From TrEMBL:
Alphabetized InterPro entries for the sequence: PPR_rpt, TPR-like_helical_dom_sf
PROSITE patterns attached to this UniProt entry: PPR
Spans of repeat PPR: 176-210, 211-245, 281-315
Listed Gene3D superfamilies: Tetratricopeptide repeat domain
The name this protein goes by in its record: Pentatricopeptide repeat-containing protein
Species per Swiss-Prot/TrEMBL record: Platanthera zijinensis
Keyword flag Electron transport: no
Family: Belongs to the PPR family. P subfamily.
UniProt keyword terms in alphabetical order: Repeat
Length: 346
C-alpha cells in the first residue's frame, strides 16, 4: 500500500522514502542504496497520468529527491509546479519553488508563464499567486516577460499585484517605470480610469513618478471616459510634480478642449506650449486647424496653415504660393478643394 505523506518530506533529512506506487497501482521503485532509480522522465510521465493525485506525485518526487545524484531538471519543474497548483497545493508549490535555484537554474518564462496560467485557472487569488511567483526570485528579464504576457492576456489584476508586491531587495533588481507604465496604458486603453489614476499614485509613493508618456495616455483616457475638466486637472497635477508636458500632451489637451468649443482655451494651451519650448509637429498643427475649422474660426485656421508653411510642412509649390495670397477666400477655396483641411481634421 503506497505511503502518502501530508507534507513535503524531502525537506527533512530523517525521511526515508518508502515503496512508491503510481495511480495504476503498478510498483515503480523500491528505494534503497545504489544508483538513482527514478528519472525526471518517470516523474513527468506519472504527472501526465490522468488518475494521478498530488499525494502520489509528491511521494514520487520525494523518493527521487532522496536518491543520491538525482537532480530535477527544468522540464520536471514545468510539469510538477502547475500540476500542484491545479490541485491547489499552494504551500507545496511554494516550498518547491524555493528549492528551484538550488538546482542551478533561475526560473524563466518557460516556467513562470505556465505557473501563472495554472494558478489563474485554479482560481487562486492574485495576491497568493504573486507571492508564489516572487518566491522563486525570477530574473529581471523573466519578470518583464511575465508582465507583458499578463497584459496581452488582460490579466491586469495579477500584473498589478506582482508589481506592487515585488520588493527590489528580495528580487535582486529594481522595479522600473516601464513596468508600471505598460499596465497604466492598458488600463487607459480599456477605460479603467480610476485604476490607472490609482496606479500612477502608487508609482509616486514608490519613488517612481510617471513620465510624460504615461501621463499622456492617462490624460487622453480621462478626457474620453470621464470629462475634459478632470483631464485638465490631471494635466495640472503632472506639471505640479515636475513632469514637463511634451507636444503630445499639449496636442491631446488642445484636441479635447477644442471639441468642447473652448477655442480660447486652445489658444492658451498652444501659447503655453511655445513658452515651454515644445515645438508643434504635424499632428499638433493638424489638430489645431481641425479645432479652428470646427468652431468656424477660419481666419485662425489660415494663420496656422501659414505657420505650417513657414515651418516647412508643405512641399507643394502651388500650396505655398496660395498661402502667400492676401485673399483669405482664395486660400480657403484652394485648401478645401485640395482636401488639406479634411486631411488635417481626419
Amino acid at each position: 500500500m503506497p505511503v502518502q505523506p501530508a507534507g513535503l518530506p524531502w525537506l527533512h533529512p530523517s525521511f526515508q522514502p518508502p515503496e512508491i506506487q503510481v495511480a495504476t497501482g503498478r510498483k515503480i521503485l523500491q528505494c534503497g542504496g545504489g544508483n538513482p532509480k527514478i528519472s525526471n522522465t518517470s516523474i513527468i510521465r506519472a504527472i501526465s497520468n490522468q488518475n494521478a493525485n498530488p499525494k502520489q506525485i509528491i511521494s514520487l518526487f520525494t523518493a527521487a529527491a532522496r536518491q543520491r545524484g538525482f537532480l530535477p531538471d527544468l522540464s520536471t519543474f514545468v510539469s510538477l509546479l502547475p500540476f500542484l497548483l491545479r490541485h491547489r497545493r499552494i504551500r507545496a508549490a511554494e516550498l518547491l519553488l524555493r528549492r528551484f535555484p538550488i538546482a542551478g537554474q533561475r526560473p524563466g518564462p518557460s516556467l513562470l508563464l505556465p505557473l501563472a496560467s495554472s494558478a489563474l485557472t485554479a482560481g487562486i487569488p492574485c495576491d497568493s499567486t504573486s507571492r508564489l511567483i516572487l518566491s522563486a526570485h525570477p530574473s529581471a528579464s523573466a519578470f518583464s516577460s511575465l508582465l507583458r504576457s499578463l497584459l496581452r492576456s488582460s490579466h491586469l489584476t495579477l500584473a498589478r499585484s506582482l508589481i506592487l508586491t515585488a520588493v527590489p531587495d528580495d528580487l535582486g533588481f529594481q522595479i522600473k517605470i516601464r513596468h508600471f507604465a505598460g499596465l497604466v496604458r492598458e488600463y487607459c486603453r480599456l477605460g479603467y480610469v480610476n485604476e490607472a489614476e490609482d496606479l500612477v499614485v502608487q508609482m509616486g509613493r514608490k519613488g517612481l513618478p510617471a513620465d510624460a508618456d504615461t501621463y499622456n495616455a492617462l490624460i487622453a483616457s480621462v478626457c474620453d471616459h470621464c470629462s475634459v475638466d478632470r483631464g485638465f486637472r490631471v494635466y495640472l497635477a503632472m506639471a505640479d510634480i515636475g513632469v514637463s508636458p511634451d507636444v503630445i500632451t499639449f496636442s491631446t489637451m488642445i484636441g479635447r478642449v477644442g471639441m468642447q468649443g473652448w477655442v480660447l482655451g486652445c489658444n492658451c494651451l498652444f501659447g503655453r506650449m511655445l513658452v515651454m519650448g515644445a515645438l508643434p509637429d504635424w499632428s499638433c498643427y493638424r489638430i489645431l486647424v481641425g479645432v479652428y475649422c470646427k468652431n468656424c474660426c477660419l481666419s485662425d485656421a489660415i494663420r496656422v496653415l501659414r505657420a505650417m508653411k513657414r515651418d516647412g510642412f508643405f512641399d507643394d509649390v502651388r500650396m505655398n504660393s496660395i498661402l502667400d495670397c492676401e485673399c483669405e477666400d482664395a486660400i480657403l477655396c484652394y485648401v478645401l478643394k485640395s482636401g488639406i483641411i479634411g486631411g488635417l481634421m481626419g
